[in-house]
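Q: Hi! First time asking for a complex rather than a single chain. Here are the components, and I think there are two in total. Is that enough to go on?
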Amino acid sequence: QVQLEQSGAEVKRPGASVKVSCKVPGHSLSTVSMHWVRQVPGKGLEWMGLHNPRHGERYYAQKFLGRLTMSEDTSTSTTYMELRNLRFDDTAVYYCATRYCSSGSCPISYYSAMDAWGKGATVTVSS
Amino acid sequence: SYVLSQSPSVSVAPGQTAMITCRGDNIGSRSVHWYQQRPGQAPMLVVYEDTNRPSGIPERFSGSNSANTASLTITRVTAGDEADYYCQVWDSSGDSSVVFGGGTKLTV
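A: Yes, that's all I need. Here is the structure of the assembled complex.
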């Protein structure tokens, strides 16, 4: 099972952008597909998107189309989630999550079960 | 889009059995995963692909899935099991996406 290291808390103004990182130490990004899930305080889990760096596939929740970008830096085994045009209701804890595939050739549906999670990055949108 | 429905809360006495349900249209044809989330912590996978337990998850946790209902059953419940539980599927119809249920608060 992989470990995921997320960046720290952020405070942003409305209209700004935030970029959260998720590092997969000791593993190539070709062996993971990274989900981004957020949780507004007191609410449930909300899926934002899935990024498969090996195949260049990206799946976005309809709600975040146009505002969300998922990217990677293979040299540091780090994936990123950037959310633009922040609103007050984007205040949440943002998690990265994945399932390790040793061969790197697992179908995208394999990654739907998330058995490794980052600790979460709190993003506060405040004026 | 696909919708998963969970009861908001379930209460059970210590030592008893808790059953948490997740309803969706023909959910039995999909693989269902379950997560436990304790306060202030990240979610943790407790059952995947309907019935499988990840390494380290006690046998007290089990899952089933048929027709329009998937279930997570926890036997011999302890105070440590008190948490929010979420079901989840991969919806490959239309734009592929992950769908979470709204979550069930288990009170022991």
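A: The interface with chain B takes residues 1, 35, 37, 44-47, 50, 59-62, 95, 97, 108-109, 112-115, 117-120 of chain A (CB under 8 Å). Let me know if you'd like any chain examined more closely.
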